[in-house]
């Protein structure tokens, strides 16, 4: 299966949260444990909670980079 990178995201109308996933998983390598991880979550309707507010995004950040002075 060839899949272009895409994602699916849903947010509540009250903007209290968001859920999403990569529609074609995180890896194109069949030997990777991430080859079908997101696809299986999609199939089970187990969308992942995404950081939504500025505080949640900061708390969830794995890497940061400063590209301009504020």
Main beta sheet strand tally, sense and closure? 3 strands, antiparallel
Helix count? 2
Task: Give the overall average pLDDT.
Answer: 75
Number of strands: 3
Helix proportion: 10-25%
Provide the spatial order of strands within the biggest beta sheet.
Answer: 1-2-3
- Uncertain ranges: none
Series of H and E elements: EEHEH
Helix/strand layout:
Layout: E1 7-11, E2 18-22, H1 37-43, E3 48-50, H2 54-60
Antiparallel strand pairs: 1-2, 2-3
Structure commentary:
The chain is of the alpha+beta class. It is 20% helix and 19% strand. It has helices at 37-43, 54-60; strands at 7-11, 18-22, 48-50. The longest helix has 7 residues, at 37-43. The protein is flat. The protein starts with 6 loop residues before the first strand and ends in a 10-residue tail after the last helix. The mean pLDDT is 75.
